[in-house]
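haha ok so turns out i had the wrong file open the whole time. this is the CORRECT one, sorry everyone. sequence first:
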Amino acid sequence: MELRPLADEYAPYFERYIALVPEPDALPILSAQAAVLAGVSSSLPAAKEHFRYAEGKWTIREVFGHLIDAERVFGYRSFCISRGESAPLPAFDEDAYVLRSGYDGRTVAELVREFTLVRQSNLVFLSALSPEQWIRTGTASGRPISVRALPFIMAGHVRHHLRILQERYGIPNV
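then structure:
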């Protein structure tokens, strides 16, 4: 079965994430990313965790918290659509979620631990899907999306934010 989604299986907005995953299978990438985030966390000075590169931008802690939020949302979408959910799934306002999260009061190490647990749960779930479930489509944020597009979005989303942490927050070796 082809794991890579076709362009009509996701909203054009998500192409920026899917393009960051040229590999044919996103599951091995998903499996490795928690360790990458743990490596970033272990090399990050605690004093820098509250850094934001511009007024109104998220702190490093909030970036890591946003990764948790997105992981939960994309995992939930995968679950619902794989089960044949026909009701449209809602969008999420990442800025509003972060604003109300309290993530800036938690350490990056704590946030990476939570991300790792959510990601592990999603991996167990995704690894057990049948070929029929992988190709199911539903609606999220008012647009069509397939189950098989979501792991690519998840992997690309983390890669996107790792790049931002490097380029805008000055975290080396991301």
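The chain has a mean pLDDT of 96.
again sry for the mixup
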